[in-house]
Specification:
Elements: E1 2-10, H1 14-24, E2 35-39, E3 51-57, E4 68-70, E5 72-76, E6 82-86, E7 90-96, H2 97-111, E8 114-118, E9 120-127, E10 130-136, E11 142-152, E12 158-162, E13 165-177, E14 186-191, E15 201-210, E16 213-222, H3 230-243, E17 248-261, E18 268-270, E19 273-275, H4 291-307, H5 319-334, H6 339-349, H7 352-359, H8 365-372, H9 377-386, E20 393-396
Parallel strand pairs: 1-2, 1-11, 2-8, 5-14, 11-19
Antiparallel strand pairs: 3-7, 4-7, 5-6, 9-10, 10-11, 12-20, 13-16, 13-17, 14-15, 15-16, 18-19
Helix pairs in contact: 1-2, 1-4, 5-9
Protein name: Lycopene cyclase
Length: about 400
C-alpha cells in the first residue's frame, strides 16, 4: 500500500490524537490538510488504555468525553493531617484514552480528510521535500506513506543524557465498593501515608468517580521501578490498611512508568520530521503531568501548518520552569529535600489556583518568587549551586 498525504502522524497516543484533532478543525479560511494517522496494531507495541488528568479553567474542548471532574483537591501529610482546597476557577478533570480516541474518531470521520492506518512503523526516511514512513500491516503487508511533514510521537528507545532522572511509576486499581465510602467532591491528590523510598517520594492517589467507585493508585518517584508483584502488594496495603476498604472489587487496572528528567529532548529529527509529546519534552519533570503541555504543543503545530509556516514544535515548558524542575529533581534525588514535607507545605501555604498554575508553568516571575518563599531555601540553593557540576549521563528509556 502506497499513500501520499500532507501530514503523517506516527502514534495514536495523546500527542498523535491531539494533533490529528487539531488538523481536523482548521480555522476559517485555512487550507484543509490531508492527514494519515499511523496507529500501532493490537499487540505489544500498542499502549494499554490509560487515564489522563489535568486542570483547566472553565469549559474545555473535551468536556463531553470526561469520566469525572472535581473542584476540590486534598493532600495528606505522612501523619495523616489533611488539607482540602477549592481550586476555582480551575477544575480538575479525568479523561480516559478510550473516550478520547472515540471523540477524535468521530471528529475526523466528519472532516473526511484523515485516514487511520493500523501499522507497526519501522523507518522514517527523510527526503529533500518531505519524508517517507515505512510500516508493516497486521496481515504482514507493507505500507509506505509519503508526506510533506511527519510528526512522530512514539516513545524514545533511550533517554537523552540528563543530570537527574527519576521515574514516576504507578499501579492503579479501579475499585467498586458495596457501600458508599468515597467523597466524590474531592480528589486525594497526594496521600503521603505510604512507605517512602530512599531517593524520591511515594504517595497514594484517589480519584472518586462516585460514592462507591474510584481509581486508587500507588505512585512512586524513584530511580528504579519496583520488582514483579510488589506494586500489587503495596497497593493492596494502601487500599486496605490506609484507605480502609474491606469489601471491594477490582474491575480494571492500569500501570505506567513516566521519566521525570532534566534532559533536553530534541524536537527535530530532519528538516521535515519532528517529534511531539513526551518524546519531545512535554512531560513536566517535577510532576509527570503531560496532557496539558501536549495540548499546547500540538495546538501550536496545527496552527503553523494551517498558516503555511514551518511547524517546528515549541518547547512545552519555559526555560525558567525547566531550571526550577532540574533543581527540584536534584534536591529530591540527593535527599536534601523531604518530598512529602515539600509538597504538603506548598499545598497548605500557597493559594491553590496559583500553585496549579505554577505546576503548569503558567506563573509570572513574581508569582514564582512568592511560591519559592515556601520551599526549603538552603536545600534548594545547595542543589542549584551543585547542578552545573553534575555530569549528564544517558540511560535507557523506562
Amino acid at each position: 500500500m502506497d499513500l501520499e498525504t500532507d501530514v503523517a502522524v506516527v502514534g495514536a497516543g495523546a500527542a498523535g490524537l491531539s494533533l490529528v484533532l487539531g488538523l481536523a478543525r482548521p480555522p476559517v479560511g485555512a487550507r484543509p490538510l490531508d492527514t494519515v494517522l499511523l496507529a500501532a496494531p493490537p499487540g505489544p507495541t500498542r499502549t494499554a488504555p490509560r487515564t489522563w488528568c489535568f486542570w483547566e479553567r472553565g469549559v474545555g474542548p473535551y468536556d463531553e468525553a470526561l469520566t469525572a471532574r472535581w473542584d476540590h483537591l486534598r493532600v495528606r501529610a505522612p501523619d495523616g493531617t489533611a488539607v482540602t482546597r477549592a481550586i476555582a476557577p480551575l477544575t480538575y478533570k479525568m479523561l480516559s484514552s478510550d473516550a478520547f480516541e472515540t471523540l477524535v474518531a468521530d471528529e475526523i470521520a466528519v472532516s473526511g480528510r484523515t485516514r487511520r492506518v493500523e501499522a507497526a512503523v519501522g523507518q522514517v526516511e527523510p527526503l529533500p521535500d518531505g519524508a517517507r514512513v515505512h510500516g508493516r500491516l497486521p496481515d504482514g503487508g507493507r505500507v509506505t506513506v509519503r508526506a510533506r511533514w511527519v510528526f512522530d510521537s512514539r516513545p524514545l528507545a533511550s533517554l537523552p543524557p540528563a543530570r537527574t532522572t527519576l521515574l514516576q511509576h504507578f499501579r492503579g486499581w479501579f475499585v467498586r465498593t458495596r457501600t458508599p465510602v468515597f467523597d466524590p467532591d474531592a480528589v486525594e491528590l497526594m496521600d503521603f501515608r505510604t512507605p517512602q523510598p530512599a531517593h524520591g517520594l511515594s504517595f497514594g492517589y484517589v480519584l472518586p468517580v462516585g460514592p462507591r467507585e474510584a481509581l486508587v493508585e500507588y505512585t512512586e518517584f524513584s530511580r528504579q521501578v519496583l520488582p514483579g508483584g510488589q506494586y500489587d502488594r503495596v497497593l493492596r496495603r494502601y487500599v486496605e490498611d490506609v484507605v480502609g476498604l474491606d469489601d471491594y472489587r477490582v474491575s480494571a487496572t492500569e500501570h505506567g512508568v513516566i521519566p521525570m528528567t532534566d534532559a533536553a529532548f530534541p524536537r527535530e529529527c530532519a528538516p521535515h520530521v519532528f517529534r511531539i509529546g513526551a518524546s519531545a519534552g512535554a512531560t513536566r519533570p517535577s510532576t509527570g503531568y503531560t496532557f496539558s503541555a501536549v495540548q499546547r504543543q500540538t495546538r501550536a503545530v496545527a496552527d503553523a501548518l494551517h498558516a503555511g509556516r514551518r511547524p517546528l514544535p515549541p518547547r512545552p515548558h519555559s526555560a525558567r520552569a525547566r531550571l526550577m524542575d532540574a533543581i527540584l529533581l536534584h534536591a529530591l534525588d540527593s535527599g536534601r529535600v523531604d518530598g512529602p514535607a515539600f509538597f504538603s507545605r506548598l499545598f497548605a501555604r500557597v493559594p491553590p489556583e496559583r500553585l496549579l498554575r505554577f505546576l503548569d508553568g503558567a506563573t509570572s516571575l513574581p508569582e514564582d518568587l512568592a511560591v519559592g518563599a515556601h520551599v526549603p531555601t538552603a536545600a534548594m540553593l545547595t542543589s542549584a549551586l551543585r547542578l552545573p557540576f553534575t555530569p549528564r549521563r544517558p540511560r535507557p528509556a523506562a
